[in-house]
Write a structure and sequence with these properties.
single chain, 503 residues, mainly alpha, Growth Hormone, Chain: A, 20 helices, 0% strand, globular
Length: 503
């Protein structure tokens, strides 16, 4: 993508060609809900598919007559495909139009899902998962581009609040849904259930999402695409492998080192390229930078929570998978409840104060999970998870909205791709860090089999990452993203009244 001089959002011309297809002011209230819900359904489908398959692996291994460890290739191949194609998603959307690419991505994901469901061997399943990953890599970043270029900035907080719901619900409902399907039907339905959702998504995109594209798109930065794709794939695979402990240490270190080297080479390439595929100059925008770094640390902790809670409730407390899934679902209900009052809360406190103090509260609820015991009433556990889900959802909404507060319109596509890359890395790293913490806990207690007390250090570590993420927002000015929060409008009104009185 070509470099564009960075400037504040207030200086961006809303009538520029890059905003062609955006909705006007009269449609703001309509688009702030409908467009994020359409994109959110695609995100939910992708996250549900990614988590539900882990529950079905034993049944799949028996059906395909493959060792469960080898069957992990079905998960790894999807992640690698996702990582390779995320960096190029912005260029493809600008070149061919966000609506067309988004619709095509859903279709590719659907075809991949059907092929997964009818697979008769591991090789067929892996090939189908790679195709699914190609679609998934385009769905979320391009869907976010549609939101950023269709929804006015004054409605962006509400839009992002609806978009963040699937990110919190998908990983939570995945395990119980997978357990239910595997228990009462065949594992193949975990892929077939995507089909009606995909069909509905394609229809909704065609009817309600206008085309958004750039008039002038530079040539594809092929070298940058190769470096970022290979680098991100190697890092994600390395982090995932470190979390599962299935590969030798030297191989994991080699993957991480190779991925880091590719990313370093891209930085050098970026400084010389006329049209780099990912514009690292976005990190010069304070709101985007702190949102990416602070939000990344927060996601590392959140990404590991469903994994740790499932282990604690099922292995530590002996609760069956379906019931533990229902208990964990309380956090998703808390996330949904938060959406009722998001705008007044942000308008009253502002982004900086909210991200700092709400981040601390969210981290404390994560640490509270370390206090659960087998004798703790399930209602108490559910209430703690409900409250934690409420504050975590608020934090996610603020982080997602803040990232794009000051990004110029021509760089919105690039910002979406770069943010997606960061999210993919931090979520994978979070699971790896949590798995490492579990091993440390087992070593401290000299355990051979994982117990509830071995999981305690992992909850403390994830909460600590959340606290660290909150500290990243301290340098933000008090009026950061005032246009989004609505606080700028209140200050301007006060200043006008003061001026009138002085006159």
């Amino acid at each position: 993508m070509s470099r564009v001089p960075l400037k504040s959002a207030a200086q961006t011309d809303p009538k520029s060609p890059s905003t062609r297809g955006a909705f006007d002011q009269s449609d703001g209230e309509f688009t702030e809900v409908l467009v994020p819900v359409i994109v959110g359904c695609a995100l939910f489908m992708e996250l549900l598919d990614s988590t539900v398959i882990t529950t079905a692996l034993p049944a799949m291994s028996r059906s395909l007559q493959v060792d469960p460890i080898r069957l992990n290739l079905a998960i790894t191949s999807y992640l690698l495909s996702l990582a390779v194609f995320i960096p190029v998603s912005a260029w493809v959307a600008d070149r061919f139009g966000a609506r067309m690419v988004f619709r095509a991505a859903i279709l590719i994901f659907t075809i991949g899902s059907v092929l997964c469901g009818v697979s008769q061997s591991l090789s067929q399943l892996v090939a189908a998962r790679i195709l699914q990953g190609c679609g998934g890599a385009m769905m979320v970043p391009v869907g976010r581009i549609v939101i950023l270029k269709s929804v006015p900035k004054r409605h962006l907080v509400t839009a992002m609040s609806y978009l963040s719901i699937p990110a919190l619900i998908g990983p939570v409902v995945g395990p119980p849904v997978g357990g239910f399907i595997v228990t009462y039907s065949t594992w193949r339905w975990i892929f077939f259930i995507n089909v009606p959702i995909c069909v509905l998504g394609i229809v909704m995109v065609t009817l309600f999402i206008k085309d958004v594209r750039e008039d002038h798109v530079p040539p594809l930065d092929l070298i940058g695409f190769l470096l970022t794709g290979i680098g991100l794939a190697a890092l994600v695979f390395g982090f995932e492998s470190a979390g599962r402990g299935e590969l030798p240490t030297w191989m994991v270190a080699g993957l991480m080192g190779g991925g880091a080297a590719c990313m370093a080479l891209y930085v050098m390439h970026y400084r010389r390229a006329r049209h780099p595929i990912i514009d690292l100059g976005l990190f010069a925008i304070p709101t985007f930078r702190v949102s990416t770094v602070g939000g990344g640390l927060f996601r590392m902790g959140i990404g590991a929570m469903p994994f740790l809670l499932a282990l604690l409730l099922q292995l530590g407390f002996g609760i069956n998978p379906f019931k533990s899934g229902l208990i964990i679902f309380a956090s998703a209900l808390g996330a949904l409840t938060m959406k009722l009052g998001i705008n007044p809360v942000i308008r009253f406190f502002g982004f900086r104060s909210l991200l700092i103090f709400n981040g601390v509260i969210s981290a404390c609820f994560m640490i509270c999970c370390a206090l659960f015991r087998p004798t703790t009433p399930h209602l108490v556990i559910a209430l703690v998870l409900f409250s934690g889900g409420f504050f975590r959802s608020l934090q996610f909404t603020c982080i997602n909205a803040l990232a794009y507060a000051d990004v110029p319109e021509p760089l919105m596509s690039n910002a979406s791709s770069l943010a997606s890359m960061g999210q993919q890395l931090t979520i994978s790293l979070g699971v790896a860090v949590a798995a490492l913490a579990l091993r440390v806990g087992m070593a401290l207690h000299h355990s051979i089999v994982l117990t509830a007390q071995d999981i305690v250090p992992a909850f403390i570590l994830t909460g600590g990452l959340g606290l660290l993420g909150s500290a990243v927002f301290l340098p933000l000015p008090r009026d950061a993203a005032a246009e989004l929060s609505g606080r700028r409008g209140r200050r301007s009104l006060v200043e006008e009244e003061a001026t009138a009185l002085a006159d």
